[in-house]
Amino acid sequence: KDTKVFYVSEKLEPKALDEAAKILSHGGTVAFPTETVYGLGANALDEKAVMQIFEAKGRPADNPLIVHIASREDCKSLVLEIPEKASLLMDSFWPGPLTIIMQRKKIVPDVTTGGLDTVAIRVPENKIAIELIKRSGKPLAAPSANLSGKPSPTSAEHVIADLSGRIDAVVDGGDVIIGLESTVVDVTSEVPAILRPGKISKEEIENCIGNVNIAYDDKVHPESETVRSPGMKYTHYSPKAGVILVEGENDAVVRKIKELVEDLSMRDAKTGLMLTEESGKHFSETESFSIGGKDKPEQAAKNLFYGLRFLDLKNVDIIIVDGSFDSTGIGAAVFNRVRKAADMIIKVK
Ligand code: TXA
Ligand code: MG
């Protein structure tokens, strides 16, 4: 495929948007920015269109997609009912990085939901995304626009690096704001459950709808296990390089990373570092990337996937990630992603 690139700025260039929307309404695949990460969109109600998403990404067929809509009104045609708690969540967090799982109507095809009777829905908080959905006139199924297993894309360049030639078009709207995928919450159970952590925290959700369970952990689950969200079974966020995560207080983490760097250089392994600003002062020679201030987890969120891809392009063998940043708020979601990406986790005191 010859992948077209449309540049769209805050001015929302109508011609570019219309052309991209036309590809979508004709059953094609178009990657577009959201506030979280770039998504690879197709008409969620068109089986053939959705199948192209799975093909382009190399995504396992049982891993369901999130359906993106322009406003909550559009939910009505997709779900059997909107539970009271879902409605409260929509009031508080839509448009925004919260995906809500509800009972689907049969109009949503099996390919989109991975055969489940539920469907995941969100209204993104990104003008380009909203405009594209409106102009296409369709709900858009859109997983993160990366090859399956790779770090999610936070810029159009990342999408092109993974999917050029495999999709019809990319809408380049610049870098995303958040850098990590949405929080996923399932409201179909008696006590709702968080299936994936994101910027919207458990505390924020509980303030809105009361008690919720946590149904995710930071491991990758074996194929044979039954999990609540199919995505939990698959390798995630992995760059080409091996990833070592060092967790603990900043001083201890710096000491451990120095040890590892020395050890790896003796073995002739090329090492790349992802360091907090505080740790960065202690290293000079090694290829490194700053994930931001250790007390600013929103910076780590924005930089994590970007940094993994950046260091991969430097052809390092091993990426060591400094895990001394704050684990509260969105920090919990950053730790979830980086633990899943890691081949080895070292905890130091
Ligand atoms: O921020 C985001 O959510 C981005 C942007 C593009 O919106 N999208 C995204 O999609 O991260 P994806 O496909 O990479 O992740 C969707 C996650 C997967 O873990 C999937 O298993 C889960 O949501 N999911 C989708 N539908 C589900 C359902 N009906 N029941 C349980 N889990 C579901
Ligand atoms: Mg993904």
UniProtKB/TrEMBL annotation:
GO terms for cellular component: cytoplasm. It is an enzyme of class 2 (transferase). One of its GO terms (biological process) is tRNA processing. The keyword Nucleotidyltransferase applies. It is found in: Cytoplasm. L-threonine binds at residues 36, 68, 122, 182. Its EC number is 2.7.7.87. Its main location: cytoplasm. Required for the formation of a threonylcarbamoyl group on adenosine at position 37 (t(6)A37) in tRNAs that read codons beginning with adenine. Belongs to the SUA5 family. This is Threonylcarbamoyl-AMP synthase.
